[in-house]
Each structure stands twice: as structure tokens, then as C-alpha cells.
Amino acid sequence: MDDSSAAVAIAGLQVKRGKALVLPHLDLQVPRGEVVGLLGPSGCGKSTLMRSIVGTQIISAGEITVLGEPAGSVGLRHRVGYMTQEASIYDDITVKTNLSYFAKILGASPSQVPDIIERTDLGSVADSMARDLSGGQRSRLSLGIALLRNPELLVLDEPTVGLDPVLRVSLWELFTDLAAGGVTLLVSSHVMDEATRCGRLILMREGRIIASDTPADLLERTGTSTAENAFLALIQGTDEAKLPPAGKHRATGATA
Ligand SMILES: Nc1ncnc2c1ncn2[C@@H]1O[C@H](COP(=O)(O)OP(=O)(O)OP(=O)(O)O)[C@@H](O)[C@H]1O
Hints:
Number of domains: 1
Distance between the termini: 48 Å
CATH architecture: 3-Layer(aba) Sandwich
Structural class: alpha/beta
Mean pLDDT: 86
Bound molecules: adenosine-5'-triphosphate
Strand order of the largest sheet: 6-7-8-3-9-10
Number of helices: 8
Radius of gyration: 20 Å
CATH superfamily: P-loop containing nucleotide triphosphate hydrolases
């Protein structure tokens, strides 16, 4: 995959937040038209990476190309949708009015609103106040707002967090449908069992990417049957690679 065909191409990305070096040096290619899962433990840098991709994070070094343009370019404003963990929804207006309002401020066509309500399965609560929505409905409304621009790339930061398993499944089905329509989705989660729903997995740990593969290839390569075990096997591999040679390590251990 060359840089022009990738939805996202990152070379040598470094990000500091406060005094912490959160992403020391990161290279990544995200292919187009797939659901790509960004998985890793809490605090490993998933949100920081996503913020860098959508252009809301100050970076210290590196290059990020999104849909062929530099991350954060004005030209990407309508091509990239971003949904954060803090849903930006107005509680004291209805679902339908939220969507119409955001359509207006985003410069999107309000004629899309009924279609988005249907795609996000919010028909039964379209006239309900947003404050009365369940967690899953709120996530779907946030997603609906992100869909208003008809984005080619959707960056979704932990969209299924706090949802029950049934709602999680329905949201992942929606992601798969969107990808089938040509949208690229980068979806973060720290729930490893969501990995099987992705076309491709990016596993992160401590600001580094430890694998970027299809779920099937990842399991085969690590000789495991679940993403969680694959992650553990990869961690073990990287930790062992960091250890000093066996003899030296044993000697150090004996004197400790
Ligand atoms: N504003 C900030 N100032 C300093 N450090 C920060 C700031 N925001 C985040 N960090 C640190 O950066 C690291 C990565 O955070 P980030 O939110 O990217 O992780 P994450 O993988 O998305 O976590 P989670 O799954 O919990 O959302 C963490 O160690 C966090 O403490």
C-alpha cells in the first residue's frame, strides 16, 4: 500500500503531552474502505493518535497524510468525521433537532437528517429530548452527527464504551455497513473481544504499535485463538526482546 492509496499514512510521528512522551516514534498505514480497530490498554495513546490524525493534536515531529492531504488541512474538514468520548450533543433539544442544528452549523444538507435517523436506528426516539436517551442511543446520535458530512474517513474514539453487549453488536454492524459503502473507519476500543469485528487490527502498547494485521493473520502469526491472547503473546515477545542476553540476565537475577 503506497501513501496515496492509504486513508491514513503516518511517518515518524512523535507527540508529547505535558512532560510525557506519549508517542515516541510511530509509523502507520490505514487502508481505505475497512473497519480498522485501534486496540490497546487504557493510557497507551489511542486518543492521542486519533487526535493527531484529525489534526487537533500538536505534534513534535513526523508527517501525517489523511486521504492524500496533510492532517488538519481545511480541505479535510468535510471529508473526515470525528467522534470523541465526550459526546457533543445538546440535551435540551430533540434528537431530530440536534441533527438539524448540527447540519446547519456544519454546512451539511438538512435533507440528510431522516436518512441518518434511519441508518443509526434512532427512529423511535427521533422526537425525544436528548437528555432522555440511553447510552447506546447517545452514541448513535453522536455517530449520526459525525455522518452529517458524509465523511470518507470516520475516526471514532471508544464509541462502544459503557454499552451493553447487544448495543455494542448493533453499533459494530453499523460500522461494517458504512465500510461496505466505502467509508474507512478507525475505531478505538480497549475491549479486546471487539477485535474480531474489524477488517484490520492495530494493537498499541505504551505509545507504540505492536501489530497491524488482519485478525486472522494476527492469530495465525501468534498461534493464539483470541485477540487478547495474541496481544499477550506479542507483549511477551517485545518484553523478551528487550531483556539482556540470557546469561547476563540470570547473573543479575542471582545477585538481586
Ligand atoms: N493533557 C495531557 N497532559 C499530559 N498527559 C496527558 C494528557 N492527556 C493524556 N495524557 C497522557 O497521555 C497518555 C495517553 O493518553 P490517551 O488518552 O491518548 O490514551 P488512551 O489509550 O486513549 O486511553 P483511554 O483508553 O483510557 O482513553 C496517558 O498516559 C495520559 O495520561
